[in-house]
Amino acid sequence: MVPSRWVWSSLTADEAADLWAELVEWVDWLRERMETDAWIKPCWFMHPPIVEELTLLMAGWKAALFVEGDEDAGEYPDAWGWVRSEPTAFMTHEFWPTLHRLPTVSDTSGCGADRCAHRPVPPRTLGSLGEFVAADVDARR
Question: The domain containing residue 102 runs over which residues?
Answer without folding.
Answer: 8-139
